[in-house]
Amino acid sequence: MTNPPLASISKITLRAASTALTLVVLFLFGVITTQSAQARTFAVLYDFTGTDGAIPEAGLVRDTAGNLYGTTEVGGAGNYGTVFELTPTAGGAWTEKVLHTFNLNGKDGAYPATSLIFDAAGNLYGTTVGGGKYYDGTVFELTPKAGGSWTEKVYSFSGKDGESPWGAGLIVDAAGNLYGTTFYGGSGTCNNDGFGGCGTVFELTTKAGGGWAEKVLYSFRDNGKDGNYPYASLIFDAAGNLYGTTVAGGKYYDGTVFELTPKAGGAWTEKLLHTFKGSDGYSPYASLIFDASGNLYGTTSGDGSGTCNSDGCGTVFELIPKAGGGYTENVLHSFNGSDGSSPYASLIFDASGNLYGTTLSGGGFTSRCTYGCGTVFELTPKAGGGWTEKVLLSFNDNNGAFPVASLMFDASGSLYGTTSGGSGTCNVGFIGCGKVFKLTP
Predict the structure, then answer these.
(1) Which of its termini does the chain have fewer beta carbons within 10 Å around, N or C?
(2) pLDDT digits 0-9 by tens, 156-200
(3) Secondary structure class of 182 (helix, strand, coil)
(4) Secondary structure (DSSP) of 107-142
């Protein structure tokens, strides 16, 4: 494998309607398999219709009242995506409200594909792949107003400062500064692909009087040593260092895990913690998580020891810091198709140390999901080492299809997530418009 799956997508595609990641990657990996038993009670909380949003590829966030918030990559009045809220009602139903519809008017964003975050004041922040003043993507803020409406403000990327923050949600530090990645853009050049850069890590700080000031903390380079195309969001450690993944780059061009360390004077130093080489994983699209011991966990969308159409089906991996520096990689699980294929989502832990995630495909064959509709899985550590995988849910089109986003727990241990497709028809020409679901223990 020599090229990242998304590297051939043009900027024109980003600006067109229906630019879902799912449409690009659906047929990259998969096998025909049988269903696995469901271990939890499943419920569809909401089924999108297109006019209210379509193809939710991002995870959900919850406010203190129990309302859920998310984005759809397309759909809405202009078919450029929406921000939505789901409110629980008496009797167990949920009511959807579209908080914002993107319209690609040169000022607004287009195609939000990332999870939202709240600040302490209740404002919502997110990113869009396209739109903005230069059509290179945006960071947006939604502020609630009296009466229930929301006001949007945007920061527009211009290429050199980043381009197309694709799957990268934002994170915030204690001072309220925002951090994220862009898939393209920056000062590096990648294979003369015409995108004008290998991607960036950026910081946005508020300016006196309003607005945002952006600083590029790092521009990735195509030199056979650095990572290329950061897709996922970042995480902080307790010392203020940033960690993330790149879809491609590194010695084998199969993706990397990197760390950025702040230096005196405001600069940042990058260090590659791991370079993938196919057998241990390929193209990590997901962000990382820490455990209490400082070990890093993540997923790769391809390769590993399983086989899906001559390629690997993806992995779950762990990076363990070594005494004296460096990390040791441990592949916790290689998917084989029947238990899932192509995990694009980040992992989450429960209180017992079990890991949960989703796979885009695999898990079972249906007439509308040639390579399987995707799964929800659990990984449980075994005494003496190793992990046991259990498929909690195999999607079958009727209950959803093609989950791209990570899951979320509530206080009772129920899991919430989204699927980018599933059942019905959709005005964006896809297998259904997507769903929000809940798995109750």
Answers:
(1) C
(2) 999 999 999 988 799 999 999 999 999 999 998 886 555 679 999
(3) strand
(4) SSEE---S--EE-TTS-EEEEESEESTTSS-EEEEE
Beginning with the edge strand found earlier in the chain, give each strand of the sheet holding 117-118 in spatial order: 117-118, 124-128, 138-144, 150-156
Strands 315-321 and 171-172: unpaired
Only one residue has tokens 């993540």, namely: 298
The 10s digit of each residue's pLDDT in 417-438 is: 999 999 877 866 667 999 999 9
- SS3 for 203-243 is EEEECCCCCEEEEEEEECCCCCCCEECCCCCCEECCCCCEE
- Are 366 and 34 in contact, with CB atoms under 8 Å apart? no
Question: How many whole angstroms separate alpha carbon 377 and alpha carbon 356?
Answer: 6
**For 113-153, how does the pLDDT look when each residue is reduced to its tens digit (9 = 90+)?**
999 999 989 999 999 999 999 999 999 999 999 988 999 99
What is the residue whose two structure tokens read 């798995």? Answer: 439
Indicate yes or no: pTM above 0.85. Answer: yes
| 3-class secondary structure, 163 | strand
Query: How far apart (Å, rounded) are the C-alpha atoms in residues 403 and 430?
Result: 14
